[in-house]
Amino acid sequence: MTVSDATPPSDSILRFTGVSLGYGDFTVLRDISLDVRRGQVVAMMGGSGSGKTTLLRGATGQIRAQAGVIEVFGNDLARTSESQLRSLRQRMGVLFQQGALFTDLNVFENVAFPLREHTRLPEAEILQRVLDKLDAVGLRAAAHLGISEISGGMARRVALARAIVLEPELILYDEPFAGLDPISMGITAQLIRDLTDRLHCASVLITHDVQESFSIADMVCIVGQGKMLAAGTPADLSSSDNAYIQQFIQGKPDGPIAFHYPATPAFDAWLDQSARRK
Ligand SMILES: Nc1ncnc2c1ncn2[C@@H]1O[C@H](COP(=O)(O)OP(=O)(O)OP(=O)(O)O)[C@@H](O)[C@H]1O
């Protein structure tokens, strides 16, 4: 199988079909089906440890599906070689929560870095593209500043500009609103929506923030209890009478979502062994 350059006509960017994901013998999520299309913002929500990061790892091919099929830009990840996977990843932008910037490079050079690594564009073109992306995150006039001269919120936006500089078709965000004040949260949410529309890409975000994600998402997925509990538009989920979904949306402390991390066979074995040592 070859890695196709063109997106399939269906405009499907990321598709999970009956996917199980986990680590070794441990399955975190079962039977996940999901279709993310060009132009969509999709929010992945769920309690702590429910498997959101595991889903992102599946999408980037960091972990392989235990069952089912994961397709990125129409390519089945189980059938891609390491080099094909690398070229698929070049079409994705990933923004980690700690999107670490290079402290010895200024803002401009941080954003230019992927262009210098992966393209042979002339300097004039690099200048144009980097300033364009910095403009998109409102930091064009900060291009010359050192990383120590910008605030934490600005650093997050520089990391975002860097994640989009290769004009990815899929952008994955790991908790883009974490640690931001309410105004910056609103600005970041709008930025994600605008970039998705402008680049005509797809954006998948892991988030705990119901208000911000519901304001921009085309689809919200809630994972928990080892499966996809719900997927639908923000309006669908808001009107759902499922107790788990309502507890999640309203952030209620009491309800079906457990506070305790569930015991696993590995924990029982560890406890057994620890008790025997005493
Ligand atoms: N590398 C790993 N090896 C083994 N188990 C792992 C690994 N990474 C995560 N897990 C387990 O997988 C489950 C899901 O973890 P994951 O990080 O996907 O959750 P999450 O929904 O992103 O959580 P949070 O919101 O707290 O970041 C947890 O039970 C976790 O202990």
Automatic annotation (TrEMBL):
UniProt keyword Nucleotide-binding present: yes
Keywords: ATP-binding, Cell membrane, Membrane, Nucleotide-binding, Transport
Domain ABC transporter positions: 14-250
Chain segments annotated as coiled-coil in the UniProt record: none
Listed CDD domains: ABC_Org_Solvent_Resistant (cd03261)
Domain of life according to the entry: Bacteria
Gene Ontology terms, MF aspect: ATP binding; ATP hydrolysis activity
Any matching Pfam family: ABC_tran
InterPro entries: AAA+_ATPase, ABC_transporter-like_ATP-bd, ABC_transporter-like_CS, P-loop_NTPase
Protein name: Phospholipid/cholesterol/gamma-HCH transport system ATP-binding protein
Biological source species: Paracandidimonas soli
